[in-house]
């Protein structure tokens, strides 16, 4: 099942929240949603990207929806960050500015609370080297992958495990205890 803003509905079972850039990025959320529908249909996916017409964007509603399902995924599921490279430059806006803030926020929550994260970084994403270094140093249990299918597969595996019940094999592949 896929959840899209602005509707907040009760959900049973694990949720994978698709965190990552929207403005200036390809529609990677549609690709990830399809991957889960085909490969892990029991997982609910929360995707903040939705079609919208000019003038109908409800900023507060969008942020509230994202906050609700980020917290829901943190409690029972996984937050999957996919850091897609920029395809369209938007003047006056730093690429992935909100995503970078959220990534830092959830990195700290992982360190403090054990929130399950997966971080996928597409080649060409600006700041990739720094993000990889910080996560490898501070969060060695967070899978760091290079393709969206790898990120989806890692999130699927982690979503089915009790908190903290995973190890990482060489190369960042998650494995159950």
Describe what you observe in this structure:
- The protein has 177 residues and is of the alpha/beta class.
- 39% of the residues lie in helices and 17% in strands.
- It contains five helices and eight strands, in the order ββαβαβαβαβαββ.
- The protein has helices spanning 28-39, 59-75, 97-113, 128-138, 148-159; strands spanning 2-3, 15-19, 44-46, 77-83, 117-121, 144-145, 166-168, 174-176.
- The strands form two sheets. It has a six-stranded parallel β-sheet with strand order 1-3-2-4-5-6, sandwiched between helices.
- β2, α1 (28-39) and β3 form a beta-alpha-beta unit.
- α1 packs across α5.
- The protein is globular, with a radius of gyration of 15 Å.
- The model is unreliable at 162-170 (pLDDT under 50).
Give the arrangement of secondary structure elements.
Elements: E1 2-3, E2 15-19, H1 28-39, E3 44-46, H2 59-75, E4 77-83, H3 97-113, E5 117-121, H4 128-138, E6 144-145, H5 148-159, E7 166-168, E8 174-176
Parallel strand pairs: 1-3, 2-3, 2-4, 4-5, 5-6
Antiparallel strand pairs: 7-8
Short summary of the structure?
With 177 residues, the protein is of the alpha/beta class. The protein is built from five helices and eight strands, in the order ββαβαβαβαβαββ. The longest helix is centred in the middle third of the chain and has 17 residues, at 59-75.
List its salient traits.
8 strands; alpha/beta; 5 helices; 177 residues; six-stranded parallel β-sheet; single chain
- Strand residue content: 15-25%
Average pLDDT value?
90
Give the fraction of residues assigned to helices: 25-40%
Q: DSSP helix count? A: 5
First-to-last CA distance: 28 Å
Please describe the biggest sheet, giving its number of strands, its sense, and whether it closes into a barrel.
6 strands, parallel
Q: Stretches where pLDDT falls below 50 for ≥5 residues? A: 162-170
SSE string: EEHEHEHEHEHEE
How many beta strands in the DSSP annotation? 8
- What is the spatial order of strands in the main beta sheet? 1-3-2-4-5-6
Overall geometry comes to globular
Using the CA coordinates, give the radius of gyration. 15 Å
Structural class assignment: alpha/beta
